[in-house]
């Protein structure tokens, strides 16, 4: 026969539960913000490439979609001096 314990009835266990829940929410918010920044950087880089070089080849679009924020920032800076869209990604 299983023993059931309601952790919310125990002040110490309830506090640990709430701390864990708050920590999880904070981590979720940080991760969500990071994902939002990455998506924005992808969108901006794609728009800039299209504006400068015309339609983006599928190969480059896939690279943009799979890149992390640090890589997207590096490519955004390379775009300034690139003579072709491909040079941005070298």
Number of DSSP-assigned strands: 0
Low-confidence runs: none
Structural class by secondary-structure content: mainly alpha
Mean pLDDT: 87
Helix content: over 70%
Count, helices: 4
Percentage of residues in strands: under 5%
N- to C-terminal separation?
64 Å
Question: What is the radius of gyration?
Answer: 23 Å
Largest sheet entry: none
Number of domains as seen in the coordinates: 1
Commentary on this structure:
The chain has helices at 11-53, 58-66, 69-81, 85-89. It is mostly helical. The chain has one domain (9-89). Helix 1 (11-53) runs parallel beside helix 3. It is rod-shaped and about 70 Å long.
Write the layout of secondary structure elements.
Blueprint: H1 11-53, H2 58-66, H3 69-81, H4 85-89
Keywords:
rod-shaped, mainly alpha, 4 helices, 90 residues
Short structural summary:
The chain has helices spanning 11-53, 58-66, 69-81, 85-89.
